[in-house]
Amino acid sequence: MCGIVGLFLKEPRLEPELGAMLTDMLITMTDRGPDSAGIAIYSPAGKGLGKITVQSATPDRDFDALDGDLREAIGAPVALMAKSTHAVIEVPLEQIEAARAALAHLRPGVKVMSSGENIEIFKEVGLPKDVAARFGLSKMGGTHGIGHTRMATESAVTTMGAHPFSTGSDQCLVHNGSLSNHNGVRRMLRREGMTFETENDTEVAAAFISHKLKRGEALGSALEATLTDLDGFFTFVVGTHNGFGVVRDPIACKPAVMAETDEYVAFGSEYRALVNLPRIESARVWEPEPATVYFWER
Amino acid sequence: MQTFDLEKEGLRALNSSLHALKGQTNMTRWEVINPKGAHAIAAGVDAEVEITVRGSTGYYCAGMNKQATILIKGSAGPGVAENMMSGKVVIDGDASQYAGATGRGGLLVIKGNASSRCGISMKGIDIVVHGNIGHMSAFMAQSGNLVVLGDAGEALGDSLYEARLFVRGNVRSLGADCIEKEMRPEHFELLERLLKAGEADAKARPEQFRRYGSARKLYNFNIDNASAY
C-alpha cells in the first residue's frame, strides 16, 4: 500500500497555494504510507535558468561553499538554496549537464534528486507531516505537483527508495503497487545506457518511460507501453514540465480517484485526500479506468 | 433524529454508539455529517435503524450490516456493504471496487456506476446498479441477484456458481463458465420485484434484461483438462 496525490492547476490564481493544498493531501494519505514521503513540484526557474535538486546525508558539510565551488567549475552564475537535507541549485539551463558532472566530482556524497527547467523533488524517510515540515512544502508555489507516501514492499526504506523518482529532465514518477519483472527490465534498460540509483521496482518504471521519451516517443505512447511491458500491480502518476499523466494496470486493484473543476485536476489514492480542495462539492469526481492513459497538459 | 458530526466526534465514537444499539432502540434515525471519505462509517451495525450519511465515504462503509437502512448521499469508496447480512444500503452516487463483496443478504442499491469486482463472491445479497459495472464483477458469485441497468465490463461472472446476473446493456465479455440463459416467467417476476425494491422501476422494465448464469462446467473435475494443471 502507498498513497499518491497529484494536483494540476488550470487557474493561475491558485499557483501560490499549490504547496499548501498538496501538503494537506499528502498528510491525509499518511495511513497508506508512513515510511517515507516525497513531493515533486513544478515551478519555472526563470528565463534561461534550470534547477538541480540535490540531497545529502551531511548537508552542513556538503552544501557549505558549494555554490562558489560550482561557479568556479562551470564558469557560470550559480544560486543555491538549502532546505534541510536538500538544496535547489539554479544554473543557466545549458549548463545543467556540466553542473551535474562537476557536482559528482566536487561532492561525491551528494545525490541528484531531479534536474530540469521546472522540477524540484524533496523526499525523505519519516512521517509525511514531518517530511512536509522539514522542507516547508506548504509555502511552495507552482503549476503542478505530485506527492507520495510510501509503505515499502519491494526495497529498503531509504531516502533514495522514496518516491518520486526522476530519471529524465523534468520527469518524475510515483507508484502504488509492485512490479514483478523489474529486474529483467532494469537489465534491458542498463544495456540501453540508462543508469539506476537503487534496486527499487518503481525506479525501473520511471526509467522505462524516460528511455521511451529519450527515443522520441510521445508521453502517451510511453505510458501505453507500461501496460504491455511491465508486469505487476500499478497505479502510476507521471509528471513532466507541462503536465501530468495517470495510468493503472488492467486489474486496477490499486485505488485511484480523480476530480476536475475549471480550476484544477486532482488525483488521490482515496477520495478523502481531495475533500479539502476548493469547491470539491461541485467537481466531477471519477475513477480512472483500468489500462487507460490519461493526460493533462498546459 | 440523532445528528453525529464525524469530523468533530470521530469514527470510534460513531461506531461504538451504533453498536451499542444492539437491535433494540428508540433512537431509530441517525444522520452522519462531514463524512469526508472516512473509512468504515457505520460498519457492523446490528439494529433496525435508518442512518443517512451526508457526503461521500471511504473504504468499507456499511460493512457487515445487519437490519439497518444506510443511505449514502454521495459516492462510496471500496468495499461498500461488504459482507452485508441483511438490511438495505442505498448509494446516491457511484461505488468504488468490490461493492457488496461476499454479501450474504439484504439489498444494495447503487444509483450511479459501480467499478470493478462488484458483487465478487456474493452469497445471497441482492444488488441493483442503475448505471454500469466494471470488470470481473460477480467473480465466483455463489447466490443472490445482481441487476445492472447499464453495461457490464470484461469477464462478467467468471467462475460463477449459482448467483443470477441480469444486465440490460452490453456485456463487454463473459468470464469462464458464465453463459447467457433464457428468461423464464419466474425471472420476470423476480426482476419486477428487484427493480421496485431498487428504486429503478421507473427507469427499466424486466423484459429489457438478459440473464446470465453458470454453465456449471467447472463444478466437477474434467479429465480432459488434466494436462492444464
UniProtKB/TrEMBL annotation, chain A:
Keywords: Aminotransferase, Glutamine amidotransferase, Transferase. The keyword Transferase applies. Its EC number is 2.6.1.16. One of its GO terms (molecular function) is glutamine-fructose-6-phosphate transaminase (isomerizing) activity. Residues 2-298 form the Glutamine amidotransferase type-2 domain. It is an enzyme of class 2 (transferase). CDD domains: GlxB (cd01907). It comes from the Bacteria. InterPro entries: GATase_2_dom (IPR017932), Ntn_hydrolases_N (IPR029055). It catalyses: D-fructose 6-phosphate + L-glutamine = D-glucosamine 6-phosphate + L-glutamate. PANTHER family: GLUCOSAMINE--FRUCTOSE-6-PHOSPHATE AMINOTRANSFERASE, ISOMERIZING. This is glutamine--fructose-6-phosphate transaminase (isomerizing).
TrEMBL record, chain B:
It comes from the Bacteria. GO terms for molecular function: oxidoreductase activity. This is Glutamate synthase domain-containing protein 3. PANTHER family: TUNGSTEN FORMYLMETHANOFURAN DEHYDROGENASE, SUBUNIT C (FWDC), TUNGSTEN-CONTAINING FORMYLMETHANOFURAN DEHYDROGENASE 2 SUBUNIT C. The lineage of its organism: Bacteria, Pseudomonadati, Pseudomonadota, Alphaproteobacteria, Hyphomicrobiales. InterPro entries: Glu_synth_asu_C_sf, Glu_synth_lsu_3.
